[in-house]
């Protein structure tokens, strides 16, 4: 008896054999649009923790090519299947990435980019870290928002009680209120990599939930 499943070469994960990025299970993958050729997987280390890992996967002719693994933060209390305003948890799910913006000029993204002073923020985070610069670069996560609008647009199709304004933004060194944050360099790289013609999405949640 061999140590690998019949029909699957050794060293190939079940996800890779099924045409999915590593760590993404069949139930999660069923929510990814078929046209998507860019998948940002944000996998939380624990359901109730604010620390994650983010990897951008690109579909090629032979499978999914992984980009660099990046440390990330999510909400203070971790993740939830039913996000509500003020719960300090990030929503688990698969969401399109259609719009970007920031306090700084467009770094060269192909997404629509709203360069605006409206992305200015101040104060301190949960660990006392300064929030200045957190919105220098932003990609809107299409949770409870109207795609095709600035990340600053406050339309909430599910109602205000379900929260909103969930973004990918520059990391300030601590947990967020619901967003996902990456280092400034990785955010700039992500903005330059995302291509609307490749149907980019983010698959986000704790690792156990995403593997289902």
Automatic annotation (TrEMBL):
Residues 70-203 form the L,D-TPase catalytic domain. Residues 1-30 are annotated as: Disordered. It comes from the Bacteria. InterPro entries: LD_TPept_cat_dom. Pfam families: YkuD (PF03734). This is L,D-TPase catalytic domain-containing protein. It comes from Streptomyces luomodiensis. The lineage of its organism: Bacteria, Bacillati, Actinomycetota, Actinomycetes, Kitasatosporales.
């Amino acid at each position: 008896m061999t140590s690998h499943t019949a029909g699957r070469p050794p060293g190939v994960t079940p996800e890779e054999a099924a045409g999915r990025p590593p760590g993404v299970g069949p139930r999660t993958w069923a929510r990814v649009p078929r046209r998507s050729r860019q998948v940002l997987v944000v996998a939380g280390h624990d359901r109730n923790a604010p620390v994650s890992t983010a990897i951008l996967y690109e579909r090629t002719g032979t499978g999914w090519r992984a980009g660099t693994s990046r440390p990330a933060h999510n909400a203070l209390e971790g993740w939830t299947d039913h996000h509500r305003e003020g719960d300090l948890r990030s929503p688990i799910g698969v969401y399109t990435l259609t719009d970007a913006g920031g306090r700084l000029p467009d770094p060269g993204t192909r997404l629509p980019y709203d360069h605006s002073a409206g992305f200015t923020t101040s104060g301190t985070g949960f660990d006392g870290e300064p929030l200045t610069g957190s919105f220098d670069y932003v990609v809107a996560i299409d949770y409870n928002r109207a795609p095709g609008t600035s990340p600053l647009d406050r339309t909430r199709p599910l109602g205000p009680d379900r929260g909103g304004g969930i973004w990918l933004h520059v990391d300030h060194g601590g947990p967020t209120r619901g967003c996902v944050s990456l280092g400034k360099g990785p955010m700039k790289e992500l903005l330059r990599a995302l291509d609307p013609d490749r149907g980019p999405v983010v698959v986000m949640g704790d690792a156990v939930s995403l593997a289902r």
